[in-house]
Write a structure and sequence with these properties.
By secondary structure, the protein is of the alpha/beta class. It has one domain: Rossmann fold. It is 24% helix and 23% strand. It has helices at 14-21, 84-91, 93-100, 132-146, 161-172, 189-194, 226-236, 304-313, and strands at 2-4, 42-50, 53-61, 73-77, 103-107, 110-114, 117-121, 154-159, 179-183, 203-208, 245-248, 259-265, 274-280. An 11-stranded mixed β-sheet has the order 1-2-3-5-4-8-9-10-13-12-11, sandwiched between helices. It has a two-stranded antiparallel ribbon with strand order 6-7.
Length: 325
Amino acid sequence: MLKKTISLFKTSFPFWCVVVLATAFSCNNSEVTPEPEVIYPLLLNSSITHDNEDRAYLLYIPEGYNESSEWPLVINFHGRGSSNQVQMSYSQFNTLADEHKFMVAYPQGLVGTVGGVTATHWNSNFRTGIDDTGFVNVMIDEIYANQGLDLTKVYAIGMSNGGFMAYTLACDMSDRIAAIASVTGGMSANSLDICSPLRPVPIIEFHGTADEVVPYWGLDGLPPTVPDVVDFWVSNNQCNASEVIEEELPDTNIDDNSTVSLQQYNSCNQATNVVFYTINNGGHTWPGAFPVASLGSTNQDINASGLIWEFLNSHNHPNPKMPGS
């Protein structure tokens, strides 16, 4: 099922040589080609056949990994019209992986039409007929089988449509996904209607009030707004909304044309929480990343990637589904 464009190991079988090539070659064990040393960090370019489609993903494995490692896995989804390579560069999660020793998978979305626009995308209940949730399930199984991982620490994060996909996995794969993070993402009205997680799921959201791609106050001013999405998870996680912690963060960079408001819901069921960073005047951008002027202001008071990993790493899945079960 798994087809890797980068091969890690080269195996030689002397008995095969005896049966097939005895007339032409010596089959002395001393002539067996040694396995090449695998040097980390390593970026694997892999593909899986799922639902009759070749599905690609990059897998970043930091230095220090070995065959007995059971590291966390962060699945990092790109936005619509983007790619896994762009998301890897933009979010800078490999640097965090190097420091904290976890693997990062960057799946590649297929081309589909959503809202009249044809581009790479994630089918987060957009009815494009592509089984992205099934693809992610199989990808986790393959990484577990080939690299090993800590099944209690499998996380989903994403930018824009990738954030929508992270929420979809919180709804549909709460038996595998320990926690999720969304940057400039959200949920459609249809997703909110059908979302039925099996357990409370820790959520962290970053969203700019001046986002013109995924508007903070809803598309054309219609629900669901981003605060509506956060409220859904506050309710799902049975948080005590009256104990919300609210604060205005220091404006440490006065040149980024934005500030940050923080809401934290920590009194939630099963030790979960919901964290919401509102980027006042922030655009369709990833806080702390390099600025993209066409997408609006990029806040530099906070670093979303660092905050995301700190949040994710504080949560373990209480009873993750085993591959094949």
